[in-house]
Structures are given as structure tokens and as C-alpha cells.
Write a structure and sequence with these properties.
heterodimer; A: mainly alpha; MetI-like fold; two-stranded antiparallel ribbon; globular; B: mainly alpha
Amino acid sequence: MTPKSPAPTAPPARPDRRRWVGWAFVAPFMAVFLLVLVAPVLYSIYLSLFREQLIGGTSFVGLENYGRALVDPKFWDSFGRVLFFLLVQVPIMLLLALAAALAIDSGRLRFAAFFRVSLFLPYAVPAVVATLMWGFIFGTRFGLIGNLNDLLHLELPAPLSHSWILAAIGNIVTWEFIGYNMLIFYSALRVIPGDLYEAAALDGAGQFRVVTDIKLPAIRGAIVIASIFSVIGSFQLFNEPNILKPLAPNAISTYFTPNMYAYNLSFAGQQFNYAAAVAIIMGIATMVIAYVVQLTGSRKEQAR
Amino acid sequence: MTAQRRKGATGPSVPLTLVMTVLALYTLLPLAWLVINSTKTQSALLSSFGLWFSGDFALWDNIVQTVTYNDGVFVRWFGNTLLYVIAGAGGATILATLAGYGLAKFRFPGRRAVFAVVLGAVAVPGAALAVPTFLMFSQLGLTNTPWSIIIPSLVSPFGLYLIWVYASDAVPGELLEAARIDGAGEFRTFFLVSARLLAPGAVTVLLFTVVATWNNYFLPLIMLSDSTWYPLTVGLNSWNAQASTAGGEAIFNLVITGSLLTIVPIVIAFLFLQRFWQSGLAAGSVKE
């Protein structure tokens, strides 16, 4: 830091006291931020480097916990599951949300305001309530699936069974976040300058051309942001499977997702050091994938 | 209001409206299911068709049972949730507004570092940090207290980002220069001039943080072992776990009615303040 030489873009020289006044506004946030975000990260890195033994107490083991995680079939099982979930659920949800945003923005939809609110409403519903509702609806005891089976003498696959549970969770997550993503896309569509549309109309471009040549390129930033949020959300998957577990005890294991695995290692198994290593590996994996999504998004931009 | 600039549009499209109706049915159906089934008794719940009313209209009875069950623990959870929302979301909004404004309107040493760290934090899986946060808080003696929920709720990197974007446009630099020339202190200027201009952005952040704290589940689940400090979400889940356990008291009607009571306030707030959501999200996506 060179306090004497002002940066080229800095505003005209001011009294020295002024230079630090911005900190007064930022400091309260940063203080809590350091306590609840930075400190836990550092603490979990520290924890992950040790091992607690029944005899001999805690000992430094270097990267041993990481090595253990990388050959742990339970970890890979959970990792593979969220990766699969990510590759299937996120595109479906984002495409539906994008289609809905384009429809609402098209000006050719009746009751557009009603649809916007209806789709966004689930975002206000807590994950606990959303999961309980869908869990009951999916259930065979007093759920709709059970009703339909009785009524129509069907044998619908049970959504809470072992082979369908991931699809059931994908449905719950899609339901919860489709409107949120729709609104991100819709907000971006709304700020496209009107003269772009006028120019397109003069050129005789049809609706489809307007979508592919004006709207989609204009909201690429919003699409990248929504994708990154969804990637992070998928890797963190915890609430829905954890809440469904009492309703589907045989279909959801203690290592269903990496987050559930870390949670159960800590609170059921007291393996805090190993759980910290699992959490850090997942954190790094999340950041890498979020970064790749961002790079892919901006590379397409340069190619145009 | 969008119609006038959509010159190419040729009037409402019936197929489009039908497709969107299907999508709206999908989002509204579970909520309809919840409302319908909160009017049923425990026995009617098990014996009737899920998407229509059946038996006695027991909504009022269910509400009374929900709020009186276990000496009114539901009311206690409701109060806890309000406490966490007011202190957590309110505090988060104030901190994010101050910090976002500071980043947008001042050049100070370390500004870039603050920025990089906060944006980086958005990518850190928050839930993965829960375990180390729990261990830290337990050493500080904060677990099983309201502080263990409120303090982590005070940080909203997304809120900071929104205010930073919002303040860049909403508070003109010339206005601040004028105030400085008049000799007003920076804080005086903030509270008398800037705060008013930032209000719509701050309301947006407040809405996001209110929803986040009202819906918070993971953090209280690990921080609290004593049900007296539970928020509604964790409380409802404990009722469901109890009802699903073999031999546990079947109180599914309470889980369902409790779920309805949990979402009613937040849905009302949401519908009344929806224009703020949109303006805030618009600000966020413009800048990107």
C-alpha cells in the first residue's frame, strides 16, 4: 500500500481523514463477515488437518483426511448423486424458467401479471413446508399418488421409493426455484432498450428472430448468474432430502448428498475433522464449477 | 404497459396462455392441497381424496389444536421466528446498506480487497460452513441461544451487492460533493440525504433477508438442541418426525395446519411488496 501516491483514477486530493471514512461504513459489515464467514473457513481448514484419537488426543495428520475422502466410496456416491442432479435438474428448471420469462415478456400472454405472481409464489414458501407438502402429496398413505392409485386402479411408481427419490427431490427443488429464476430472467428482459425492438421491426424480424438475436444475447449475464446460483444450490443440497428422510427412511441414506454426509459425520459420528475435510473439498469443487460456468458464459460473449 | 413497445406483437396468443396455465397449476396445486387439507381432521386426512374437502370443516379446530398443542409451543416458535426475522433481517439490511453505500461512494485503501473477499464468499457453500460455525459458537458458549441464529443472519453478501449497484445510480456524486462543500459530515449526509434515496433498494434487501431468515432451517437445526428456541421451520420438522415415527402421536393435521400458518404471513408480505422484488432484481441484473 502506498498512501502518498494517489491512484490515477482517484478523485481530487482530499484531507487525509476523508480517505478512510469509507471504512466507517464498511467496517460493521466486515466485522460480522469475518466472524461468521472467514473465521469458520479458516477454522475448518485447521480442523481438517488434525485427527482426534481415543488414545493420545488430537494429532496433526497433514492431508490425511483429504486422502481418506478421495478414496471414500460413500463420499463419491454422494458426490456423484449431486453431480447427476445438477446435470439433469438445473437445465430443466432454467429452461422452464427462461421459457416462462420470455412468455410473460412477449406481450402476447393474457393475465401476465397473474402468471408472474403465481410462478414466483413458491419462492416464499420455506423449504421445510415445500418438502412436507410434496412429501405428503407423494406419499401413498394419504397422498395424491395413493388417491390416484385407488381411484383409477393404477400402480403408479412411488415417488418416495429408492429408484424415484432423486426425481422427487428434483421436482421439489424445481417447484421452489422456478419462479425465482424466472424473475431474474424477466427483470433482465425488461431493461432491454426499446429501440432495439424498433430496429428489429424495421428489419422485418419475426418474433423468433427477436428472441434468438436480441433477447437471449441481452440477458446472457442473467443466465450466467442464475446458472451459478443453481450450481451452488445443487452442490449444497441438504434441506429437502433431510426433511424427506422421516417420510422415506429406506430411500435416503445418511450419505445421500455430500452435505448430509458431512452433517451426519459431525453430529451422529463426532468425526468433526473428517467432516471438515469433506466440506472443504465440496467448497473447492463448487467454486471450480461455478468458475467454469462463468468462463463458458463469457467465452461465448467474446466469440460473438 | 409492456405492450406499447412490443410493436411486433399481434395480440394475445391462446396456446401460450394455455401452456402458462399448466405451469401456474403446477406451482399453485401444492398450495391448494395445503389449504384444502388443513380443513380436515386427522382421520378424514387419511380417508379422503387429497384435492377436495371432506368430512367436517375442521380448519378452526385444527388452528386451535395447533396453537395449544404442547402448552402452545407453536406460538413460542412463531415468536422466536419473529425475533430472528426482526433482529437478523433488520440488522442484515442495515449492515448491507451501510457497507454497499460505503463501497459505491467512497474510495478508500483496501476497497478492492473488501470487494474480492465478499464476492468470493458468495461462492462458498454456506451450508458446508455450518459445522465449523457450530463448533466455533459452541466454544464461545453461543449455541442454544438466539444469538447463534441472529449473528450469522446478519451477513448478506447478496444484499451488499444489490445496494452497491443501487447506490451507484441512485445517489448522485454531485449531491454528495454539494453536501461536503456545505460542510456536512459524511454520516449526517448519509442519514439526511442518501438514506432516503437508498430506501427502495434497502426494502428489496429487507425482503430477501426476511424470506431467508423466515425460511432458515439448516442453521437453527444444528445450533439449537432445546426446542424452546426453535423457529417454526425446525419445530414443524420435529412434529413431522414425531408423527412419522412408529408409536409417535399421529399429528399430521397439526403439521399441515402449522405449515399453512407458517406461510400465510410471508406470502401476504410477499404479495403486497412484489414490485420491490422486481426493481431490486432488475438492478442486480443490469449491472452484471
